[in-house]
Write a structure and sequence with these properties.
The protein has a single domain, classed as Alpha-Beta Plaits, CATH 3.30.70.100. It contains 3 helices and 4 strands, in the order βαββααβ. It is an alpha+beta fold.
Length: 100
Amino acid sequence: MYARVTHFRILPGKLVEFSLAVQSLIPEVQSQKGFRGVLVVHTQTSDPIEVEVLSLWETQEDLDATEKNLSFYHALAHVQGFAQGFPSIHVHRVLVSKFA
């Protein structure tokens, strides 16, 4: 399994709007081949609030394929208005995972 980790710095007062925007994108992302899940986590102590979006994919090829269609860029543009600057994006191989 592979994870795309996207790090955002959320503008003051925009965490709820950011969360709603991410939630609105989940149905579109779920339809992508190899999609396995998404987690959105944030720090409560920093200013600005730091948010990590972890999308999980069955294979590296599945993850890479999302960057070759407009869905990934549409999703990024949809949430970018609630963040400072451009997010950092990294791809990781998942070593251990267990979900209920």
